[in-house]
Amino acid sequence: MKIVTSVVNNPIFIEIQYYTLQKYFKGDYEFIVFNDAKNFPDFTNGGDITIKTKIEEICKKLNIKCINIPNKHHILNKDAAYRCANSMNYILNYQKNNKDKYLLLDSDMFLIDYFDIDKYSKYDCAIVLQSRNNSKINYFWNGIYYFDMTKMKNINMLNWNTCSGCDVGGMMQE
Question: Most buried in the list 16, 32, 96, 173, measured by CB within 10 Å?
């Protein structure tokens, strides 16, 4: 079981997630931080190019696996949804290549009560659907999900990219 998060600009959230997972998560897991901070001045870091290093340092201090997301190409693209989808697809490719059970939590989500993953482990995946602008199009939300990559079929169809009228995950319509 792997619990993953993607951190862009709030390194302190890593510690909060780390300690709330220790307290409330029932079961064995490995916590993995995907570091999506930019090492160039950017709107996502308020011009602070040290955030990427701060994330690495916190992960090292807490003995958390930290994987840097290649994002230099984001310097040319300021579309936040595109950037997020691109990074989510990087995480997804990691999951496809490292088959396991995955719980993804957005970087600002923290457990406040006991969470038993066994309630979900009988399923291939558990997701939250979202839609935009009162649309009838429902699609996967990237804020929290459970994927059992050892059971899921057709994982090649998973794609966090946007599409017309949809945000990140729009390509994963129901």
Answer: 32
